Structure to design on (365 residues):
């Protein structure tokens, strides 16, 4: 047990972060209909640059990867150009920012697709429930098309191209979103991956696509610029635990360590009603990972410090608290009140509930 300051600078590979606080990725739906970031997104991320590391909302690597209304992408020149003011705003305040590359797979609806996108997944397992579209409101999820061998190859190339675009846009790196029931996790789970080829069946086969994406992205931009987010035992987007879950993630983490990624970002949403990740398994993941280990979900400053002091994590992720508190790190350091966010404005367009939250200094003048 050690006594580590959450607020002191810390190394993550060759990078130096301002502190140990991570702003978790959070969908905010402020891009335009063509998945191009808007000017207010630079304001939003710049306001929150006091975090040691910002991980953006999920960014689609291709038209096939975009699932939600008004979420951004990183496949076009226009998107790269529009992201540059975002990264510049964060860097101007000494922050670091990774783009989270999120291919949603089956978690999509044609009403939200752009540029001829197609809904794909490892298998044709339909997600129960509905998704919001701007044009038609709530709509049932359609059955996805099982990915062909050629589409597996092309999708890996889409991740690589998006990572290269991220670097061109000024991002410090990318986070591969292999959590929350999106495409990469759809390959990991036997509930959504019913393939009979080299990408389905055994644990080794089910982790193959994720490992290959990771290796290809590392080869393109360097391992110090690549992290990954995972959510074993998560329930998002139709996911759930399965008998081989521990073996799947331990083998995956070993593969990713060999690939040279800089961090693993573990999602722990027990505080939001998800099943708790068994403590022994969480410890085994931590022990198996040789570099920066991040845990995100339901922390306050006391529990965050306890996790870091105990060696359970190097960095700790905060989500919704960053929405209503652009200066969250300062508030936590000074023991100031933490404001509550406006849940009704999480996914609405415009500045309300996005860039209009005050900083503590303005409140106390």
């Amino acid at each position: 047990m050690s006594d580590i300051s959450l607020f002191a600078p810390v190394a993550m590979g060759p990078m130096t972060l301002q502190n140990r606080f991570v702003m978790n990725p959070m969908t905010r739906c402020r891009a335009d209909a063509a998945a191009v970031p808007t000017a207010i997104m630079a304001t939003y991320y710049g306001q929150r640059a006091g975090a040691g590391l910002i991980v953006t909302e999920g960014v689609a690597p291709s038209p096939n990867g975009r699932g939600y209304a008004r979420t951004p992408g990183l496949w076009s020149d226009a998107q790269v150009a529009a992201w540059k003011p975002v990264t510049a705003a964060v860097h101007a305040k000494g922050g670091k920012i990774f783009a989270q590359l999120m291919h949603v797979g089956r978690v999509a609806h044609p009403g939200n697709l752009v540029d001829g996108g197609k809904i794909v997944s490892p298998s044709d397992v339909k997600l129960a429930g509905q998704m919001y579209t701007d044009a038609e409101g709530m709509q049932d999820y359609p059955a996805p098309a099982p990915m062909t061998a050629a589409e597996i190859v092309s999708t890996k190339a889409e991740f690589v191209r998006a990572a290269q675009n991220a670097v061109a846009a000024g991002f410090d790196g990318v986070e591969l979103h292999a959590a929350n029931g999106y495409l990469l996790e759809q390959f990991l789970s036997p509930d959504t991956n019913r393939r009979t080829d080299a990408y389905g069946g055994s644990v080794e086969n089910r982790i193959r696509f994720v490992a290959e994406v990771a290796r290809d992205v590392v080869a393109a931009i360097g391992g110090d610029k690549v992290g990954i987010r995972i959510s074993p035992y998560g329930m998002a987007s139709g996911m759930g635990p399965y008998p081989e879950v521990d073996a799947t993630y331990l083998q995956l983490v070993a593969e990713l360590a060999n690939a040279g990624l800089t961090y693993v970002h573990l999602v722990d949403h027990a505080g939001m009603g998800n099943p708790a990740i068994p403590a022994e398994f969480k410890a085994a993941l931590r022990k198996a990972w040789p570099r920066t280990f991040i845990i995100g979900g339901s922390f306050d400053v006391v529990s965050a410090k306890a996790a870091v002091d105990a060696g359970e994590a190097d960095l700790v992720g905060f989500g919704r608290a960053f929405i209503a508190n652009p200066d969250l790190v300062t508030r936590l350091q000074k023991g100031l009140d933490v404001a509550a966010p406006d849940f009704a404005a999480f996914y609405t367009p415009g500045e309300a509930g996005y860039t209009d939250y005050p900083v503590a200094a303005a409140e106390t003048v």
In short: Residues 149-168 form the longest helix (20 residues). The mean pLDDT is 95. The longest strand covers residues 53-59. The two ends are 40 Å apart (CA to CA).
